[in-house]
């Protein structure tokens, strides 16, 4: 991540979320894992971050999430368990693999599925701190060999850094991927799915409904775009990712755009938001497809060519806003 004083922390969080979703998608394609599932899981991995660190222990315990000593001492670690809970309760996700990928995104775990490893590593590739991660080149080289090599490389780096505390899951991961140690399967209790409705006070206090709306709209838009793309001979993968990413700057308010335009020297004669989205996709996420970048920059224009990526992305956007969508009924 580069330093950007012109974006709010909320927008930075969304950029991190979509960035991890995008890298998870890319890694999933590389390692033959369901890429849409990877995008959704990667995007939702930090849902627990909606609760500020100093309130996480109280909130987690109030909804029946069991914590260990390490999590009580370093509340930052609690966001993984809270995130899994929010994914279940807010997004109705029941897929254990997706829930585990959120639960283990900070530490990984021995015997992890490919999806768990992918979201774990995507979060490290698209870290949420300033500058380039010092391990990035080594991690990317290790990923050219395998996901396990990627896990091993990063875990070695992490183990040799200044770890304040070692979470039990991290200890098992290091043992498994670096030292090839065997462990008995982790207690099933750790994987249990909590039931029940989310307390309305929590929903309101932590803007969980807004977060749900934002991500749900993005996933639906991307889904519709890939359906539409398949009917109009447009690359479905580019349609899915591009449609998701046009939403990455949604949290920027209109009155913030002028300041951003002056900082980045953008052309104020044409819409600022699409220019910014395209620049962030290129510089932040490393997207090189000219068609995708051009589409992000031109959205939401509707071109006459129905077989273009821009037409698919723009039409699916209009469609996701209507209650009865005809794309899926065609
Ligand atoms: Fe996280
Ligand atoms: Fe993260």
Automatic annotation (TrEMBL):
<protein>
    <submittedName>
        <fullName>HD domain-containing protein</fullName>
    </submittedName>
</protein>
<dbReference type="InterPro" id="IPR051094">
    <property type="entry name" value="Diverse_Catalytic_Enzymes"/>
</dbReference>
<feature type="domain" description="HD">
    <location>
        <begin position="15"/>
        <end position="125"/>
    </location>
</feature>
<dbReference type="InterPro" id="IPR003607">
    <property type="entry name" value="HD/PDEase_dom"/>
</dbReference>
<dbReference type="InterPro" id="IPR006674">
    <property type="entry name" value="HD_domain"/>
</dbReference>
<dbReference type="Pfam" id="PF01966">
    <property type="entry name" value="HD"/>
</dbReference>
